Structure formats: C-alpha cells, structure tokens
Amino acid sequence: MTSLYDRHRAVIPDWVALYYKQPVEITHGEGRHVWDADGNRYLDFFGGILTTMTAHALPEVTKAVSEQAGRIVHSSTLYLNRPMVELAERIATLSGIPDARVFFTTSGTEANDTALLLATGYRRSNQVLAMRNSYHGRSFSAVGITGNRGWSPTSLSPLQTLYVHGGVRTRGPYAQLSDAQFIEACVADLEDILGQTRGSVAALIAEPIQGVGGFTSPPDGLYAAFREVLNRHGILWIADEVQTGWGRTGEHFWGWQAHADCGPPDMLTFAKGIGNGMSIGGVVASAEVMNSLDANSISTFGGSPVTMAAGIANLSYLLEHDLQGNARRVGGLLIERLRAIGAGIAAVREVRGRGLMIGIELVKPGTDEANPQAASAVLEAAREGGLLIGKGGGHNTSVLRIAPPLSLTVSEAEEGAVILEQALHNA
C-alpha cells in the first residue's frame, strides 16, 4: 500500500515543507497533547505554528462551531452577520485603537496584504518600511516586504521596500551597544533611510517579536521612538500581531504595548491564535484609515459565521481563564528553566523570548556561527522523546521555537524542559 508520505509527495508541491525525516500524521489532540497515526502521544510545544492558542479540542470552541454549523455555515459579507459583528466589537475594544474598524480575512498573510493595500492607498505611495529579518506572509505583496531571504522567493514586488535595523537585538552592527544606544542607533538609521526616499512613505510594518525570524525582538520602546519619527512624516505604523497577539507574550495582551509611549499603532493585524485552528485573520484600523478605501471590496470567506463563532468562544475562554496571566507565570518559569539548561550546553548561544514565545538559538560550539544542522537534530530528538517544537531564525533556521497553548501547566512545562534538555545533549 502506498504510504501517505508518498501520496503527499505525488500531489503536493515540493516547497510545502514537512518536519522530520519520517513525517508525522497528527490525527487528534486534547489539551496540550496530540497523537499521531501510530498512536504515539506528544506534548505539543508548537501549537500548529502558534495557532492552537488555548487547547486542542477545547469543548467550548468545539460546541460553538458545531452549533453554528448546524444553523448556517456561510453567507459572505454581503449580508448582516451577527457573529462577525460581535467578534469585531470585542476586538475593536481590545485593540486600543480609537474609533476602530475591523476587517476579517482568512489568514495572517491576507491580513498583512490588506493592511498594505490600505496604507498605500491612504498615503498614495508604494514605498514601505520593513524590518530586517522580518516575515509577513506568503502572498506576492507579503514576500515582497519580507526581510528574510529564506522565505522570499522573488525580488519582484509591487512595493518599494526599505529595510530598517532594530528587529534583532543580539546580532548585527549594533549588538554590542546598550539598549538606549541601540535604540538611538536604530532611530538614526531610520532617519537616514527617510532622507533617501522621494516623496511620501506609506507605512512601517513590524512584528513586535519576529516570529519566523527566531523570536527576536528589540529593546522595549524602540517602536515608540520610531513612532516619533514616523509621526513627523505622516507615516503609518502597522503592528503585525499575527504571532504576538492575544496575550502570548504574558506581560502584554498585544506586542505593541511594550512600545506604547506614543500610543497604539495606526493599524494592527492579527490571525493564528484567535481561531484556535479555525481560519481567522484580520486588520484593525481607525475609521479614517479603514474607510479610505475608495473601491468596492468584500470578503467571500472572511468573517464566516462558523469561524467567528469559534473566535468568540475562544476569546471568551482566554479572557475568563486569564491565559495571558498563565503565559506570564508558566512562561516565566519555563524560560528560566531553559536558560539554566542552556548555560551548560556549548551549542546554545541564547535563550530568549517572553511569556510562551521562547527561542533557543544554536551555534557551532566555540563560535558565533549559526548551526541549522543542530536545530534539525534537536527537533528530531525532541520528537523521539515525545515533544513537538518548531524551528526558525533568519535564513539559517538555527533557532528552536517554543510556543505551546497558553493553558500550559507548570508540570507540563517541566516535562517539556526535561525532554528538551535530553534532546539538546543527544543531538
């Protein structure tokens, strides 16, 4: 009988990557655990790429999806949609953006694509600022602003993109500076770039913590300092919260709040965790910016009654059970435990992150050279030990990414740390 892997390779593009030398078929999950087709049980520290935000098979979400599907699955944005309006009301309030409007999409890529459309239309400019080492999605416009060659297959783009320093704190020309000096140098770099542009620049798009880039982040306050410069030029700030939103960083509900001295961003994009696996993305912007679109536009699948029902139930569970607080408490314990482990392993350059968004950067021992082979080996060893994690980190892919559901318990965090320690020693 032909294996599922062989069937996959026969019909799915080669560039749709699979983890592991022997890829795993995940058949079901519960809480923070999943099972494969062979009956093996794994502790899930990656959550379907930061998407299973609360828990696998969360009864509240399952019930909401089932009940809504039993009423109506689809209608489109051409008709009034109660679940869409209810979720939009809650997100608009939580966003911190005054007089907010919410447009729903089906993915983070589409959300960022929409934000770029709004910004370039509002500012009448195709010039965009993005961060080095960034990632914003898979669409033609999104890969055009992605500052990571491993995820940008073409140099063609409808946008003129200028890349700014600041997303990576511990590598690059400013790594040895103090936090205050680092921010000062990055602001000077931004000013210098703007001095080279012709006419207006539409927006700066930035992840508060770079996801695919390896969970790197600038010192708190960098984007507030950037905002002072942007405001002088009328340039919009788009906070890409696809991976950082909904309390995952523990200390804040949104990643931008670590840079809040100049208030909320002009636009905020979200996706992943809000649907707990259902396809939800979206953009939040002030009415002035959102309503500036001067052409007809709808969304066939964005705001689907079923996905909106899932989002309402999932967000309610997250808030009622203070999963942001749990991410802060359990994530804080986990990162300190991993730092203690890393201190005794020569291949570990840095353990970084916030809340339940943690990266372990691996290098060749005795050097500062990225070690993607070690990252792949640890990924395999962790799976053999019963733990699923992710990878990332610039084009070198040498960072282990840890992002479990936000309901992770202390005992599960310790269980995962023990497996990771063994994997790091054995890889």
Alpha-carbon distance between the two ends: 33 Å
The beta-strand count equals 15
The share of residues in helices is: 25-40%
Physical arrangement of strands within the biggest beta sheet: 4-10-9-8-7-5-6
Structure notes:
Helix 3 (59-71) packs antiparallel against helix 10 (305-320), helix 4 packs across helix 10 and helix 11 (323-342) packs parallel to helix 13. This protein has helices at 4-11, 47-50, 59-71, 82-95, 108-123, 140-144, 179-194, 222-233, 287-290, 305-320, 323-342, 372-384, 410-426; strands at 26-30, 33-36, 41-44, 100-105, 127-131, 160-164, 203-206, 236-240, 267-270, 281-286, 348-354, 357-362, 387-388, 390-392, 399-402. Helix 8 (222-233) links the parallel strand 7 and strand 8 (236-240). The strands form three sheets. It has a seven-stranded mixed β-sheet with strand order 4-10-9-8-7-5-6, with helices on both faces. It has a four-stranded mixed β-sheet with strand order 1-2-3-13. The radius of gyration is 21 Å and the shape is globular. It contains 13 helices and 15 strands. With 427 residues, it is α/β, with parallel strands linked by helices.
